[in-house]
Amino acid sequence: MKKSALQYWLRYYRAEIRAALLIQLQYRAAFVIWLLEMIIEPVVYLVVWSTVARARGGEVGGFSPEDFAAYFIVFMLVNHFTYSWTFYVFEERVRTGKLSFRLLRPLHPIHSDLAFNLTYKFLTLVVMLPTGIGLTLAFHPAFEFTAGQVLLAVPAVALAFGVRFVFEWAYALVAFWTTRIMALNEMYYVILLFLSGQVAPLSLFPDWVQTLSYVLPFRWMVAFPVELLLGHLDRGQIIAGFVAQAAWLGLSFLLLKWLWARGVRRYSAVGG
Amino acid sequence: MESDSAAIVHARDLTKVYRVPVRESGLGAAFRSLFRRKTRDILAVNRISFDIREGEIVGFLGPNGAGKTTTLKMLAGLLYPTSGTLKVLGYPPWKREKHFLRQITLVIGNRSQLVWDIPAADSFELQRAIYNIPRDQFRETVAELTELLDLAPLLRKPLRNLSLGERMKCEIAGALLHRPRLLFLDEPTLGLDVTMQRRIREFIKYYNQRYHATVLLSSHYMADVEALCDRILVIHHGQLLFDGELDELIERFSTYKTIEVQTRAPEGDLSRYGEVIERSDGYVSLRVPRKETAKVTERLLAELPIIDLTVEDPPVEEVVERIFAQGHAGPAPDEEAERAPGTAGGRGAS
Amino acid sequence: MRVFLTLFRVNLLFELAYRSNFFVQALESLSHLAFSILGLALVYSHTAELNGWSVYELLALVGVFFAIGGLIGFIIQPSLQQFMQDIQKGTLDFALVKPVDAQLLVSMQSMRIWKLTDVLLGAGLIGFSMWKLQTAWSWLRVGQFALALLDGAIIVYSFWMIMATLAFWLIRVENLLVIFESLYEAGRWPIGIYPGWLRMALTFIVPVAFATTVPARALTGRAQPEVLLAATGMAVALMVLARIIWNIGLRHYSGASA
Asked: How many domains is chain A built from?
């Protein structure tokens, strides 16, 4: 019984990924161009903070321009791995009733999004990796990876993706209650930009923001694996980070379940 | 269970009330509505009851907004009823249990559930994985559907490159891969040309007979219903106005036919042949009692310089309008229609 | 101008019917503004100046960034997107048969009125930073700023126009314009901070520098006459180039559809 369930999921994901590949390969030009934003933001902040560091005589908050380069290049890659966009598309599914078909499938719609997202990640690595190498050549980052850090970073990135994907999928469900989702998304994105460490390493923020970042999920979505990989964290911080990630993953699941049950109930009250 | 054991759908006093926000104009009101919304209830389906047996093809008729789509969606599990009893295949549909979902399918005309950007064959593979269809059964079903619907030249092209009719054929095939016992077809022939409509009708009939599947169909087109359905449910203003065989429906309510003539003397008074319901440059539409159609046609051809003449059943909306009007006093609001007093067989003849 | 006013009125009336869109847009603009200001605050909590720009000078730059961005979002982007769609669907003919210059017409056929919020916010930011900087006004400076801003607007418009016109030959040009949108984000910061290759790209390939940094420099009294001259030259050149490509494209279009 167990075995056949596993087989079902393997077969299902294989089929879903195959379909996603077929779709995404058709839109490769558009996909590559969408990546630009993922690349340009970190480069801009890399340049801004390097300029600040140079103006301050070579370093700010313990970061030299080379450290900033390392931070933002690694950030770009980790951000790529954990990126999710469900909340941009979910409102349309609700509004147009496309969700109805997904509801009538004998499995939860989150699976097809997950397969699509993972396919996109690995397909676009073809662009992200060379970009990372190119930026490395252009900005001379100070990388010092130890094997241990790299080994620990792998589960940290995976968990970060899990937290972000599940949390944002749950957040996307707000679309069941309001169609004015664009403005909300914009606000969510601004918060994410700051508190996930995209604008600057979180250690450069005022103390109260840092404190806030520890209790909210955003730090664990990107900044934590980046700092871990770059060796900014001691053993205690690493353990705390993994615990926080696990906790947020669990919480996000509960939130998702709770919102989904209520959202679908509402959806099936007003009609799809 | 107290109902007929062969009943695949069992509905008693099924009711659906929508609560919709009332929009007010003005900035202040828009702002207030952020905090407290005024709502108003709309009764979309009002205490309807019916049973459907395995293997039936049942047509849901009614104008837009009559409640037929709401009913279908409740049966399919997309809407939960406000009150009443509802069992479909023995399940409460709104819970959308996996065993229930595996036995049903939903096709909506003009809407796509296959992936737009890839060929149908690839979407089929995905359906196979979703419904966990055994490989052999899948091959067999695809081969059969391909032959019946003539899909061979379409399966390898991306869906978006197909015409509406071709796409609909693929949609229907995709919806049947898991061999559902119960089919919900909401306007499946919407926007298709006549040949394609016929094609799809024939296929639905075949599928029903071959697999003893139950089909619930809603359509605007009388022809769909005529060709397919043994039984009709007419829903209007949320109420079930008629439940019975098609012949009975036509016999009882479609007591008229419409004759459209193009004549060289359009100014002439045609009211002695029937009720004039429309008149526009050279064309005149007459409403004539069903039984007298042949006689009146003969007279028209003999007595007038006719260029062209067609006889049609009134559109579904009109039949339904008639059924509805019968339940209430007064004629349907025909604009500009001068009632012709002379003709025999006024309303309420049946 | 009359055409513009008429179109503006029509669009305004239409939008007024959907006033709640205004709140959505306002919320969006405010988030965007908060993002800019918080970013600036963070950077300037660690330094007093960035590449020779004080915090209020940079705030003025952000103001210009908002104003030009708002202008793009208000009229340039919606109109030209419509234009590209028309080319692809072959429905451009409607614009061509009107007794108005067709380039002008397609350039302002569609407006998103509420995007003007960004323009207002930008103007507010500019005013606020000027007040904070205690600027001594001179006609020269106002003139320089106005000229630089005009140049910037013309350059951005012409760039979009040229890109959009490429739709006569290529499909999916929209993607090229997404590149512009992404790169425009870089214009939030003074162009001088970027390394040489990137600065070149942001000046000559995608003319972001002229749209934001150059007007902001003029505004804060640091206009370089040769740069202003170059901007004006570039504006004129791009405008002429856009017109030439437009004419060729039109000939191509009527040749193809005839």
From this structure: 1
A23 touches C at CB < 8 Å: no
Map out the domains of chain C as residue ranges: 2-257
Residues of C with CB below 8 A from A135's CB? none
Cα separation, C36 vs C185, whole angstroms: 11
Q: Report whether pLDDT(C3) > 80.
A: no
Which range has highest mean pLDDT (A100-104, A201-205, B57-61, B328-332)? A201-205
Q: Quote the ipTM score.
A: 0.87
> Which of B175, B172, B187, B181 is CA-nearest to residue B217?
B187
Flag whether pLDDT at B31 surpasses 70: no
C85: pLDDT strictly greater than 90: no
DSSP-derived 3-state class of residue A104: coil
What's the pLDDT score for residue B293?
Answer: 84
Candidates B108, B107, B109, B90; CA nearest to B99 is B90
| HSE-CB of C119 using CA atoms within 13 angstroms | 14
Q: How close A113 gets to chain C, by Cα (Å)?
A: 24
Mean pLDDT (chain B) is 81
Q: What are phi and psi of B289, to 5 degrees?
A: -55, 140
Q: Are B188 and B107 within 8 A, CB to CB?
A: yes
Torsion of CA A152, A157, A163, A168, to 10 degrees: 170
CATH number of B256-327: 3.30.70
Residue B336: its pLDDT value, please? 30
Tokens of C215: 């007007």
- Name residue B284's amino acid: V
Judge: A270–B80 Cβ closer than 8 Å, yes or no.
Answer: no
> Tell me, what amino acid is at A162?
G
Cβ neighbours of A60 in C, within 8 Å:
46-47
Contact (Cβ atoms closer than 8 angstroms) between residue B13 and residue B49: yes
Residue of A70, A85, C170, A270 lying closest to B74 (CA atoms): A270
For the beta carbon of residue B108, count every other beta carbon within 10 angstroms.
Answer: 22
Strand, helix or coil at A206? Answer: coil
What residue spans define the domains of chain B?
Answer: 7-12+48-250, 256-327
- Please, what is the angle between helix A147-172 and helix A86-96, to 10°? 20
B214-218/B182-186 β-pairing:
parallel
Domain assignment of residue A217, given as a range: 2-270
Task: Please answer whether residues B228 and B59 qualify as being in contact, where contact means their C-beta atoms are separated by less than 8 angstroms.
Answer: yes
CA distance C253 to C106: 15
Whether A19 and B79 lie within 8 Å, measured CB to CB: no
Contacts of B134 (CB under 8 A, 6+ apart): none
What gap in Å lies between CA C68 and CA C85, rounded to an integer? 24
Q: What phi and psi values does residue A234 have, to the nearest 5 degrees?
A: -90, 175
SS3 content of chain A, % helix, strand, coil (to 5): 80, 0, 20
- Closest chain A C-alpha to C114 CA, distance in angstroms: 13
Q: What is the pLDDT of residue C157?
A: 93
Q: Please, is C173 exposed, middle or buried when counting C-beta atoms within 10 Å of its C-beta (0-12, 13-18, 19+)?
A: buried
Whether domain B7-12+48-250 has CATH 3.30.450.40? no
Task: Show residues of chain A in contact with B113, CB under 8 Å.
Answer: 101
Residue A229 to chain B, least CA–CA distance (Å): 38
Quick one: which of C63, C189, C188, C57 has its CA closest to C132? C57
Residues in Cβ contact with B123 at an 8 Å cutoff, skipping those fewer than 6 apart: A19, B114, B115, B159, B170, B174
Q: Is pLDDT of B339 > 50? A: no
- How is residue C239 written in tokens? 């405008």
Task: Report the DSSP beta bridge partners of residue A49.
Answer: none
Cβ–Cβ contacts within 10 Å for residue B269, how many? 9
Given a cut of 70, whether residue B8 has pLDDT beyond it is: yes
The SS3 assignment for C68 reads helix
In C, which residues are within 8 Å of B27 by CB distance? 19
Percent of chain A with pLDDT over 90: 73
